Amino acid sequence: MSRVTKGITLAVIQLLLVASLAAKLLYDRTTQPRGWAKVQTYDPDLPIRGRYLWEQLNMPAEGFTVERNENARNPSWGYMQQWAYYSVRDGQLIASSTGSPSQPGGWVNVWKNADDTMHARAEQSSFFFIPDTANIPPLQRGDEMWMEVTLPKKGPPRPIRMALKHNGQFTPLNF
Question: Are 82 and 108 a contacting pair, CB within 8 Å?
Answer without folding.
Answer: yes
